[in-house]
Design brief:
mainly beta
Length: 114
Amino acid sequence: MRISSAVLLTVCLASCGPEAGVPQGDAIACAIGPGAQFEELCVLEKLAMEGGREMLVIHHPGGGFRRFVMERSTLLPLDGAEPLVVNADYSQGALEFSVAGDRYRLPNDPDPEL
């Protein structure tokens, strides 16, 4: 193997490291997978969209994620055909919902900046 090929391979592998895609946001409670208990392991990323809507991206600890859009106080899934089921609303202190067996709790603190 040539030295230039080895250097290129090293650079490519370094860009795939865990620090390359660390999501920025707030830690939220989630229970990923059947039988999982709620723990603050997921990261909530909020992004402004056109028309005053906001996109919420919930990053799982294993690298997966789910995307949602908030429209007029309604949370809608953006990915796949799996329905979102609300288990508890904000009157309980947090919005608790599930998608395909994964459960999430969003604190009753919507970001006022978005």
